[in-house]
Amino acid sequence: MLAHRPDIKAQLKETIAQALQALGLNELPEIIVQETPAGKEGDYGTPVAMSLARTLRKAPPQIAADLVQNIQLPDWVKRTFVVGGYLNFELDPAFLVQTATLPLAPFPRTGGKVLLEHTSVNPNKELHVGHLRNICLGDSLSRILRFAGREVEVMNYIDDTGRQAAESLYALQYFGLDKAPAHVKYDHWVGEAYVRLHQAMEDPEKKAVIEQGVQETLHRLEAGELRPEVDKILRSQLQTMYRLGAEYDALVWESDIVREGLLGQAMKALESSSYVFRPTEGKYAGALVMDTSAFIPGLEDPYLVLIRSNGTSTYTAKDIALQFWKMGLLQGIKFVEYDTQPSGATLYSTHPEGVVMPFGGAGETINVVDTRQSHALRVVQASLEVEGRHDLAEKCFHLAYETVLLEGKQMSGRKGIVVSVDEVMDEAVRRVLKVIAEKNPDHPSPEEAAEQIGVGAVRFAMLKTEAKKQIDFRYDQALSFEGDTGPYIQYAYARAGSILRKADEQGVLQEEANYAQATAYEIILAKNILRFPEAVQDAARNKAPHILAQYLLELAAAWSSFYNAKTPDGKPATPVLTASPGLRGVRLELVKALRQTLKQGLELLGLQAPEVM
Fold first, then answer.
1. Percentage of the chain lying above the pLDDT 90 cut
2. Which segments constitute the DALR anticodon binding domain (predicted)?
3. Domain residue limits, the chain
């Protein structure tokens, strides 16, 4: 028996390539192999003959027929035949089903580090629904890329010198709110003060006093005097991130980028370019300006200020310095051990008293940032072009995502029109607990299951939709055990586990499978299981977790169809435990493979797999 699952499609592609070469083709077209549609003859097919019609000056059916004459088939292909312009393959059913039950071979490791930055929430208040999508996309993509063989470093950027952090810290001082009550999570306490400060600033007299206080706080932040206060907010935010299932390799603080001189080094490097200069007159007089017109065409004003005439740096300048460090153009940031995360992995953080570690220096970067920041990310990319590093500029990817509505409403942190991520998770868990109490009152651990299902439902709702489409999160839809939801996939996993536990109790779990008995029902389920590695590769290549999410929904639906299949006279067509010996072994092996595939897929999306729903 084979140790690992062979790649059926890859082997068919190789077979087709050899047949094309036998026809005298030296330059081969892209060879696509896909499952044949339901109701059509064969298991897999290729439209390659259609793409060769112009080159060979023949009709596709004739090209396909020529391929049949020249093809050397693997022994597990029963026959190959022409359907229109397609070349179809019918596989040995026993081989096809048995292949789906074999363990997946690890993906080959691919060289080069990917540095993926996500979350990067201002350390000034609790995380709200708008941040949910960023965290879920970034964390899931890092899991998918690692599984697909990439070396991934996950970074969370801490903007501790920005105005938002200054406003929150000054708000605590202004209102005398230095100590939060024990029952209030600290980042929520700070967030309330932040909103109150913005309300107070509507009064012009108060605004003048507040503005002076905020500016003083900003200077103290930049001097590093208030780091412990920012750290307290950050650690409270991390509790939310951890509960969502997100973990990081490194926190990079903006103040450390500046303090270690990286900002100055980046600006000095850019100044040697003809695209960066200091105008002596006009509105940009005295400032350090970058001309982006050669790299971002069509801008009304292509000049971008990096250092203002008063010597202060812009957000863009700091972002450029960070990007230069990410891609190895700058070194020297020091790190310390910061926290032990729920998985046991160490989280590192930049710190003036740390040591230099091998973070950064990646050949490829991914920034998970909403679509409104597209221009800012394009400017950072242009700075690499200015530096003469087109190779690195090409490897900067912006995973842009659209906004999230909650029950149809848009969020605004400054106006206090927000629902926190903590509240969303709490509400989801509360609702699931209620369902469990109604439907499964004897559940062995309802609180644990409710946490896994509720938080998983929230994550899946953020991942199932293509990033460039807006999401309207609604509790009833997200928490449903039917339809395109996380609980639907988790339920499919739990149902498969229940069958295997019963098989174990009956002593038939390890029954030998007679794959020659496999029927059309097993073939359909097997083909769905076999698509898993392809879904992972597609999601990794396109940096699109929704591809994997949609695959898992399709797999769960295929399992439901198999489980509920009926014979023409209305009897169960696919019983597992009461099937005849040999066929029962086949079905049990398929259920094991299905369960493992669902579990692995859920894990890559950051969802847990409850044993009992």
1. 89
2. 489-613
3. 8-91, 162-223
Q: What mean pLDDT is predicted for residues 576-604?
A: 98
What is the token pair recorded at 320? 């450029």
**Token reading at 321:** 């310095």
Report d(CA 397, CA 393) in Å as an integer. Answer: 9
Specify the 3-state DSSP secondary structure of 18.
helix
Beta-bridged to residue 337, according to DSSP, are: 348
Closest by alpha carbon to 269, among 335, 207, 331?
331
Cα 436 to chain center, whole Å? 29
8 Å CB contact between 206 and 170: no
Helix or strand or coil: residue 450? helix
Answer whether 48's CB lies under 8 Å from 20's CB.
yes
Q: How many residues does the chain have?
A: 613
Residue bearing tokens 């839809």: 477
Cα–Cα distances (Å) from 103 to 99, 322, 550, 600, in that order, read 9, 41, 22, 12
Yes or no: say if 127 and 420 are a contact pair by the CB < 8 Å rule.
yes
Distance CA 120, CA 369 (A): 9
Which pair of tokens denotes residue 89?
A: 């393959």
Strand residue runs (E) in 371-455: 396-401, 404-406
Q: Which residue has the tokens 């395109």?
A: 484
At residue 406, φ and ψ (nearest 5 deg) are -115, 115
Residue 401 carries which DSSP code?
E
Structure confidence by residue, pLDDT tens digits, 101-151: 999 999 999 989 999 999 999 999 999 988 999 999 999 999 999 999 999
- Name the residue type at position 533: P
Q: pLDDT tens digits, residue range 219-251?
A: 999 888 999 999 999 999 999 999 999 999 999
Where in 146-235 does DSSP place strands (E)? 151-158
Q: Which residue has the higher pLDDT, 116 or 26?
A: 116
Residue 25 carries which DSSP code? Answer: -
Alpha-carbon distance 351 to 259, whole Å? 10
Instruction: Give, in words, the CATH class of 8-91.
Output: alpha beta
SS3 content of the chain, % helix, strand, coil (to 5): 50, 15, 35
What CA–CA distance (Å, rounded) separates 261 from 330? 10
| Distance linking the first and last C-alpha atoms of the chain | 35
How far is residue 580's CA from residue 517's CA, in Å, rounded to a whole number? 10
Q: Give me the chain's average pLDDT, please.
A: 95
With contact defined as beta carbons under 8 Å apart, do 78 and 90 qualify?
yes
Q: Is pLDDT of 324 > 80?
A: yes
Amino acid identity, residue 356?
V
Asked whether 285 and 279 are in contact (CB, 8 A), the reply is: yes
CB atoms within 10 A of CB 503: 21
Contact 89, 43 (CB under 8 A): yes
